[in-house]
């Protein structure tokens, strides 16, 4: 079935040439194509030369975006005793112990990120069916199992994101708002690129980077020249 695009989208797509753009040029074009009636996000989609069905080719980690995400993140924390008060003082939107686990099990999902202390993970295990499909299950790899709750909450509130490669070896994340200055979008995109390179799976063979495309939420895709981005020196 052929996907139908709006007239607005078709007109914007005419601005995009079939080539890989220099990073700053791509970010400028992304901003120009963000013409929807709401504040669009900036998205990046990267195809990597990995096969995540093999454990040594899986990619799941975090990146701290220097210029933030432009989004307000609702953080919930599951801890015990004094750690609950510590989480609240650090800015957690929700914090609790077994009672919070029960609320989540009952369908309460008023948060975007869940952080837990290590000692609470055995109790949280029963939430796997609820949290797993939403990508919200706390994980040490994602930085969402932590003992220093203040630092973890502050990092995620400031622009730290978890990302992972899907079963096709593609990584999708939001790396800011389309209204950001193009230079700030490049800074965030560079941090993301460096994170992917730094966390290259041990089993990845051959050409690691296959393609990178960016777009506004409702805008057309723009290919980014990966080699140009990797060669850039960006000051945060």
UniProtKB/TrEMBL annotation:
GO MF annotations in UniProt: rRNA binding; structural constituent of ribosome; tRNA binding
Pfam short name (any one): Ribosomal_L1
The organism's place on the tree of life at top rank: Bacteria
Function: Binds directly to 23S rRNA. The L1 stalk is quite mobile in the ribosome, and is involved in E site tRNA release. Protein L1 is also a translational repressor protein, it controls the translation of the L11 operon by binding to its mRNA.
Coiled coil region boundaries: none
Organism ancestry: Bacteria, Bacillati, Cyanobacteriota, Cyanophyceae, Gomontiellales
Protein's name according to its UniProt entry: Large ribosomal subunit protein uL1
GO annotation, biological process: regulation of translation; translation
Gene symbol of the encoding locus: rplA
Family annotation (Gene3D superfamilies): 3.30.190.20, 3.40.50.790
A single cellular component GO annotation: large ribosomal subunit
């Amino acid at each position: 079935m052929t996907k139908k695009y709006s007239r607005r989208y078709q007109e914007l797509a005419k601005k995009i040439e079939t080539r890989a753009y220099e990073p700053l040029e791509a970010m400028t074009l992304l901003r120009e194509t963000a013409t929807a009636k709401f504040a669009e996000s900036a998205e990046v989609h990267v195809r990597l030369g990995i096969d995540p069905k093999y454990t040594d080719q899986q990619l799941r980690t975090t990146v701290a975006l220097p210029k933030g995400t432009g989004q307000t993140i609702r953080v919930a924390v599951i801890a015990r005793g004094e750690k609950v008060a510590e989480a609240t003082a650090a800015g957690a939107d929700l914090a609790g112990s077994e009672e919070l686990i029960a609320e989540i099990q009952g369908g309460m999902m008023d948060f975007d990120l869940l952080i837990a202390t290590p000692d609470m993970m055995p109790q949280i295990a029963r939430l796997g069916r609820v949290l797993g499909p939403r990508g919200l299950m706390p994980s040490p790899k994602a930085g969402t199992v932590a003992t220093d709750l203040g630092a973890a909450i502050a990092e995620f509130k400031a622009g730290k994101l978890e990302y992972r490669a899907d079963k096709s070896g593609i990584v999708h994340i939001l790396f800011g708002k389309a209204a950001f200055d193009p230079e700030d979008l490049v800074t965030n995109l560079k941090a993301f690129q460096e994170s992917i390179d730094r966390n290259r799976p041990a089993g990845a063979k051959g050409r690691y980077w296959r393609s990178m495309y960016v777009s506004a939420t409702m805008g057309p895709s723009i290919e980014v020249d990966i080699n140009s981005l990797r060669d850039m020196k960006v000051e945060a």
